[in-house]
Specification:
Layout: H1 8-36, E1 45-53, E2 69-78, E3 82-92, E4 98-105, E5 114-119, E6 126-133, H2 134-141, E7 145-151, E8 159-162, E9 164-174, E10 190-200, E11 203-213, E12 219-226, E13 235-240, E14 247-253, H3 255-262, E15 266-272, E16 280-284
Antiparallel strand pairs: 1-2, 1-9, 2-3, 3-6, 4-5, 4-7, 7-8, 9-10, 10-11, 11-14, 12-13, 12-15, 15-16
């Protein structure tokens, strides 16, 4: 019956509210400490990615380009003068042969000059290497560089996307890592979490997947928190509530969350009714999104 105190959905909702109250109380105490602590991870090598479509090209391309697609992946390795770029380019369903592909410097939605010629003409699956200077490197790391593919129908570019640093993190979740220490029989409780972080200027997009088993009961919520290993901290990304093993999703996060992930000060945990502060937990390593 609607409104009945025996309604399972209402009970679950009350439980989630209680859980959020517990987490919020912890967050208020620790927010000032964890929010500013830690420096960004800087690496000698990072990955960059782009997923090209006609809708991102400027000026708007001509012809039947609705199904035109492309993918650009690369590694950037620090050098004395900038970085070495090792890249791979794939594409399909263009209006014709790809006559050239380049990296340009410009903000999203704006056309800009070529700074790195990639191929001319191009075949899908082509790979190559280029040396880039400090100016181009700075543009790539700050959302001011894009890659596009040109055709005869669209000599100014047919498909395009901004080039973005990306990193994939994985962690195993166990009860022994949780703080405070969880209650119950937890010898078989475990989980796994994978997240790909794609930097978009000062923000980022997270694409994640979570699995778990052997918990004391249903997973009422899961989050990413800010906190060093062995310390509790506030929620910075809500993942699911309630959760099923195999859950996946995406989230756009701001600069403060991105900074915590780059500094290696993030952890993932899963909450249950028996352990509302968290039953299993795994620390996330530092996301390598910036060249040293």
């Amino acid at each position: 019956m609607k409104g009945s105190t025996s309604d399972p959905e209402r009970k679950e909702g009350d439980l989630v509210k209680k859980l959020l109250g517990v987490i919020g109380a912890v967050g208020l105490v620790l927010l000032a400490v964890t929010g500013a602590a830690g420096a960004r991870s800087q690496a000698a090598r990072i990955q960059i990615v782009a997923t090209m479509v006609a809708g991102d090209e400027v000026p708007t391309p001509k012809g039947d380009v609705g199904s035109a697609r492309g993918s650009f992946t690369a590694t950037l390795t620090k050098s004395d003068t900038g970085a070495v770029l090792n890249w791979q380019l794939s594409f399909g369903n263009l209006t014709g042969d790809a006559v050239a592909a380049h990296i340009h410097i410009a903000a999203r939605g704006v056309a800009g000059p070529v700074v790195v010629p990639l191929c001319a003409p191009c075949t899908s699956g082509v790979t190559g290497t280029a040396n880039i200077n400090a100016t181009v490197l700075e543009a790539i790391q700050n959302d001011r560089a894009y890659v596009n593919v040109h055709t005869k129908t669209n000599p100014a570019g047919e498909i395009r996307d901004q080039v973005s640093p990306a990193a994939t993190l994985k962690t195993s979740l166990r009860a022994a890592q949780e703080r405070p220490k969880p209650k119950g029989k937890l010898g078989r409780a475990r989980g796994a979490f994978t997240v790909t972080i794609t930097k978009k200027g000062s923000s980022a997009v997270l694409a994640w997947r979570l699995t778990f088993s052997g918990l004391t009961g249903k997973a009422v919520a899961a989050h990413i928190h800010s906190g060093a290993r062995g310390k509790s901290g506030p929620v910075i990304v809500s993942l699911c509530a309630p959760c099923k093993s195999g859950a996946r999703g995406t989230a756009t996060v701001d600069a403060s969350v991105l900074n915590a992930l780059e500094a290696g000060r993030g952890y993932v945990n899963v909450h249950t009714a028996k352990n509302p502060a968290g039953e299993i937990r795994g620390q996330l390593g530092a996301a390598a999104l910036t060249l040293s």
